[in-house]
Specification:
Structural class: alpha+beta
Shape: globular
Order of helices and strands: EHEHEEHHHHHH
Helix content: 40-55%
Radius of gyration: 17 Å
Number of strands: 4
Strand content: 5-15%
């Protein structure tokens, strides 16, 4: 009889939990998933808030307790399972650059996407058009910076690096959401990042995660809305 999974991923389809599912698959770690149904605001239920007081997804339940914040979970996984190649170990060459761009993705790119997807949280209705224009201009500039970095230091963003898993997911969302909004990203403008997305899709671990979340065969280069095996979108 096999031992129960040591890790539990609290997730929602095509949420930030996708980044962690990708990392867990790449690391070959045993884990189980618990759906947090946003349709009924399960992320605000007392049981979930006891794990993640911010009421956000994902949460990774580990032997050390629950961890939230996508970058923090990725960092924990990269240090816990070093042989997976998710990121350089403390003291290893490239560690500083890895941390720099991991937190740039979390604090800047991801945060800007949240503002783009939920403008009503940040500006009045009459300012949403200008807000979208300003935010997409900023995001385009950030992607151009990352494309330059990926060309200059290709190993940083080479899968299975956590940077590739995180950035690939952010670029997927940029092409899909908000569903009713204008499309603004052109992957052709970022050749190094486009190559990274193609490399991601070729990986068995990524394909396994994509199947679990119903993302299709080309979740990054030709993304479509999810058709998840578990629960609603």
């Amino acid at each position: 009889m096999s031992a129960p999974p040591m890790l539990t991923l609290y997730h929602a389809p095509d949420n930030a939990s996708l980044v962690l599912r990708l990392a867990l698959e790449e690391a070959g770690l045993a884990y189980e998933t618990v759906l947090v149904d946003r349709a009924v605001e399960a992320q605000k239920a007392p049981a979930y808030l006891a794990l993640n007081p911010m009421g956000l997804i994902p949460t990774l339940l580990t032997p050390e307790g629950p961890i939230s914040e996508t970058a923090a979970c990725l960092l924990w996984l990269s240090e816990t399972c070093r042989e997976a190649g998710l990121g350089p170990a403390p003291g290893a060459p490239g560690r500083g650059a890895f941390l720099r761009w991991l937190f740039f993705l979390s604090n800047t790119v991801h945060a800007d996407l949240v503002r783009l997807f939920h403008p009503e949280r940040y500006v009045p209705a009459e300012a949403i058009g200008a807000h979208h224009e300003m935010t997409t201009r900023s995001l385009s500039a950030h992607l151009a910076i990352l494309d330059d970095v990926a060309q200059a230091e290709p190993s940083l963003f080479a899968p299975p690096s956590a940077l590739a898993l995180y950035l690939g997911t952010l670029m997927r969302w940029s092409a899909l959401y908000p569903v009713s909004g204008p499309r603004w990203i052109r992957k052709e403008d970022y050749p190094a990042l486009r190559a990274m997305l193609e490399a991601l899709e070729a990986r068995p671990a990524v394909q396994a995660a994509a199947r679990a979340e119903g993302l299709g065969e080309r979740p990054f280069t030709a993304p479509r809305l999810p058709q998840p095996l578990e629960g609603p979108t």
